[in-house]
Specification:
Elements: H1 3-7, E1 22-25, H2 50-53, E2 57-61, H3 65-72, E3 74-80, E4 85-91, E5 97-103, E6 110-113, E7 116-120, E8 124-130, E9 144-153, E10 159-164, E11 170-174, E12 179-182, E13 190-193, E14 209-215, E15 218-224, E16 242-246, E17 251-257, E18 260-266, E19 269-274, E20 279-283, E21 290-295, E22 299-306, E23 309-315, H4 326-333, E24 341-346, E25 351-360, E26 368-372, E27 377-379, H5 385-389
Parallel strand pairs: 1-5, 9-27
Antiparallel strand pairs: 2-25, 3-4, 3-26, 4-5, 6-7, 7-8, 8-9, 10-11, 11-12, 12-13, 14-15, 15-16, 16-17, 18-19, 19-20, 20-21, 22-23, 23-24, 24-25
Length: 433
């Protein structure tokens, strides 16, 4: 990659304002989000065209967000399936918050690693790789430049949360088929586990399986909205009956939740989002007793825990799926209105310490992850001129043959048995009975 490309793979975010605020970069056909100040109330430029204002989102943040990200040495990644975008949040050298966004149609589950991001989209899981060395920056101050390098085509599985196990496999919640699954070289997925109350792996979203907690690199807990075994049966059980299930024992830990999401094991405890009520809750793994730890004014969905803090996404309740939940009464009782944004909660005291709020066109978020060790990250989008023109390669030549690295093994084929019918792999096509 040449020096000009490394320094400026995209246009700059613009000249900094006089005081710390937020800078947003967008690409492709995504409407540019307005640049606003911090919570002191600076407004977006008045000259934005009326047509653009219909899809404009005002973004503001708490005064301490930049310091929190800097102290914890992380950037954030979060998704919005409503607008089909991946957002990267970091801190620029002048302490402004940088928000970089890229298009991934119906972006949902996200995994953040120091040099890799996975994003689940409508028909594929995308893998993005950072191409910068630790001594390099892009666009003058970005210390991570994530490039789409691979798309694992799965078809529309309504993939919710994902994780990487201790063998490097991507395991995901296959919500449409009510199971945990992983990639397959030939087929859309390979199922790994399903709840015992689900009688068949079929594209009916029977219980709305949605969240997954890993312990020592292995799936341990999942969340589901109900224990229904009927097509879309969970929609009639939104107010109560949500479950956390121990996948290793097939036992229900608790069934006292409302539309639960995002189980996590951290600091010696099991945490879960009681989304239909608006609480981050702690659940006793043995008794199933639930303790509400913090209330967040919005529909919770997506949580990562970092240094004793829960980083969560909140969305505005919408008619239909989120209507008539206890969450609405709980927000009203506190004299407030629902939020869309990111909230950072100190789990020791149950209080919101920092936040990022979106108001306007973007009303629903999904997942959030940290990018450890990154100060300020950016990404290139799929199908853009930037990704076509940003080329990097390994400086050292590789071997022409891998025989010296991986000794060739003779393939042993099974003996042919006369009159034996060949085995056929089971195939289930979406939409089949």
């Amino acid at each position: 990659m040449d020096e000009d490309t490394r320094k400026n793979p995209e246009q700059s975010a613009g000249e900094p304002p006089e005081k710390p605020g937020i800078v947003v970069e967008s690409g492709g056909a995504v409407p540019e989000i307005a640049t606003v100040g911090d919570q002191s109330g600076a407004k977006a430029p008045a000259e934005v065209a009326s047509a653009q204002q219909l899809q404009t989102t005002k973004i503001e943040c708490s005064r301490g967000l930049a310091d929190w990200l800097t102290i914890n040495n992380v950037s954030l990644a979060f998704t919005s399936y409503q607008t089909g975008q991946l957002f990267l949040v970091g801190v620029m050298p002048d302490r402004r918050i940088s928000i970089h966004q890229r298009n991934f149609i119906r972006a949902m589950g996200v995994i953040g690693q120091p040099d890799r991001i996975y994003v689940a989209a409508v028909e594929a899981v995308w893998r993005l790789e950072n191409i910068l060395r630790r001594t390099e920056v892009a666009n003058q101050f970005f210390d991570r430049l994530f490039i789409p390098r691979n798309a694992q085509i799965t078809g529309d599985l309504d993939i919710h949360e994902m994780a990487v196990d201790n063998h490097g496999r991507v395991i995901f919640v296959n919500t449409k088929y009510s199971c945990l699954a992983t990639f397959n070289l030939t087929h859309s997925f390979r199922p790994l586990w399903k709840p015992k109350f689900i009688s068949k792996v079929t594209p009916e979203d029977r219980c709305h399986l949605n969240g997954m907690a890993m312990v020592e690199g292995t799936p341990k807990y999942v969340t589901a909205v109900s224990q229904s075994d009927l097509v879309n049966g969970w929609r009639e059980k939104r107010e109560q009956g949500g479950v956390v299930i121990n996948v290793q024992t097939d036992q229900v830990v608790t069934d006292k939740l409302s539309m639960p999401h995002s189980p996590r094991v951290a600091n010696g405890a099991l945490w879960v989002l009681d989304s239909g009520r608006g609480y981050i809750a702690r659940v006793d793994e043995k008794t199933g007793e639930k303790e509400n730890v913090a209330f967040c004014p919005g529909f919770l969905r997506g949580m990562t825990i970092w240094n004793g803090h829960a980083i969560v996404t909140v969305s505005l309740p919408r008619d239909g799926t989120f209507k008539d939940l206890e969450l609405e009464d709980n927000v009203r009782a506190r004299g407030g209105v629902p939020w869309c944004g990111i909230q950072i909660v100190d789990l020791r005291v149950g209080g919101i310490v920092e936040w990022l709020r979106l108001e306007g066109f973007i009303k629903e978020l999904f997942d959030v992850a940290v990018i450890p060790g990154s100060r300020c990250a950016m990404a290139l989008g799929v199908g853009t001129p930037e990704v076509q023109q940003t080329i990097s390669f390994e400086p050292e030549f590789g071997p022409l043959s891998l025989d010296s690295v991986f000794p060739r093994q003779t393939e042993e084929r099974p003996a042919v048995v006369q009159d034996a019918a060949p085995a056929q792999p089971a195939k289930v096509l979406a939409g089949s009975a």
